[in-house]
Amino acid sequence: MRPVLGMRAAVSGRGVAVAYGSTVAMGPSDFDLPVGQVTAVIGPNGAGKSTLLNLIAGLITPAAGRMEVMAPRHRISYVMQSTKVNEALPVSVREVVAMGRYASLGPYGRMRGPDRAVVDRALERVGITGIAGRHIQDLSGGQRQRVLVAQGLAQDHDLLLLDEPLTGIDLTTAQAIDDVIHTETREGCTVVMTTHDLSEAELADFVMLLAGRVVASGPPAEVLTEDNLVAAYGPSLLHVDQGRLFLDDPAHRPVPGRHTHLERSIHTETDPSGTHGH
To answer: How far apart are alpha carbons 35 and 191 in whole angstroms?
Structure first.
């Protein structure tokens, strides 16, 4: 992919490839992700979405090529997808969120007033102040997801990485997290989130479409085209019906009663104003 002219990049990659033994997780790719915006990373299951986040976070290194991340590693906050918690750990919601301060405090640092204020604000932003004293094992999946996002917010950060933050949760939690995502960019943070939902990607500022490599990147209207989506998902997973594109991805089928946007479809015609509502 060619760099986007005039765009300040929070993350840049040139010829980046990732391999786990003999398995290639990402073929050589060039990309730039913009500063201060929401980038949605979308693609089929196994496309390399989580691999990209791990690269940005510095958890893995490229097998080839070079990566440049504007934020230093201690200013990158990474909220992973898993909500599994060791039930043997007697930790409260507040204690889990407070772990987000460890990157700033260091291994022997002690929580002080300003740190506790940051934790309080993180709890408030995702709407879990009222359950701060509850044991983490007693929470629903949606509540646990809010706790993990709050932990990410509690860390001092310039770059927030979210691995499918809106998957399999209730509508209220999805709205709370969505509000946080867009508040982050208004406060100057860069957000990179993975998703399997076309309509969530359509509402982002910038989109990267993966399929074991970067298929396309840029504004949603330029990336989420029928040709690009067929290249990423294959024609058997893409359906056009009455001016809308639908994905039939068996790895990410909607769950009744859980969060979904617009039946995971998008209009095939571009909005003439070039804008999207949130």
So the answer is: 8
R_g of the chain, CA atoms, integer Å = 19
| Dist. CA 198–CA 201, nearest whole Å | 5
Burial grade of 104 (CB within 10 A; 0-12, 13-18, 19 or more): middle
User: How would you label 149-186 residue by residue, b for 16+ Cβ within 10 Å and e otherwise?
Assistant: bbbbbbbebbbbbbbbbbbbbbeebbebbbebbeebbe
DSSP secondary structure string, 126-139? TT-GGGTTSBGGGS
Longest dimension (CA), the chain: 60
Residue whose structure tokens are 């009663």: 257
Specify the DSSP class assigned to residue 70.
S
pLDDT in tens, 173-197: 889 999 999 999 999 999 999 998 8
Query: Structure pTM?
Result: 0.84
